[in-house]
Design brief:
Length: about 140
């Protein structure tokens, strides 16, 4: 199998699908045939901190990943906050059920209280303060 590379899309296109790409108008006009070795090298996972880019000649190359923007970091923090909230919810839900039906132990009741306080403190986290986010300490 042969592959084409497009600098515009920074993607490879297998030759067996070219007719389909053209039929749908998605085959880039700058696509060039590359060697199998080139395809194998630049379709593999890069080293940490690197990404595939097009060089000045329009061929694939490894380049440095850009530093994440503040918006990206705020988004990541928001995703982390949601994941922590989901974890707390999963721990709290059965403990609340046990408390509601009077089958909770003293130790479980303390665990419920710690996780409820943690979840409340987590809800107050403002991810917009990145990089100075004050994360609450998760119960053990």
């Amino acid at each position: 199998m042969e592959y084409y590379y497009s600098a515009k899309t920074n993607a490879f296109y297998p030759d067996i699908l070219i007719d389909e790409y053209k039929k749908h108008g998605t085959f880039p006009d700058d696509a060039v045939l590359v060697t199998e070795a080139c395809f194998n090298q630049y379709s593999a996972d890069p080293e940490p901190g690197k990404m595939r880019v097009a060089d000045k000649k329009g061929m694939p190359s490894w380049g440095d990943q850009p530093e994440p923007t503040r918006e990206m970091m705020v988004y990541q923090a928001s995703e982390q906050k949601n994941a922590l909230r989901d974890q707390a919810d999963k721990i709290i839900a059965p403990l609340k059920d046990a408390k509601e039906y009077g089958i909770i132990t003293e130790v479980e009741d303390l665990v419920l209280k710690e996780w409820a306080i943690y979840r409340y403190n987590l809800s107050k986290v403002d991810v917009e303060t990145y990089p100075d986010i004050n994360w609450p300490v998760k119960p053990v």
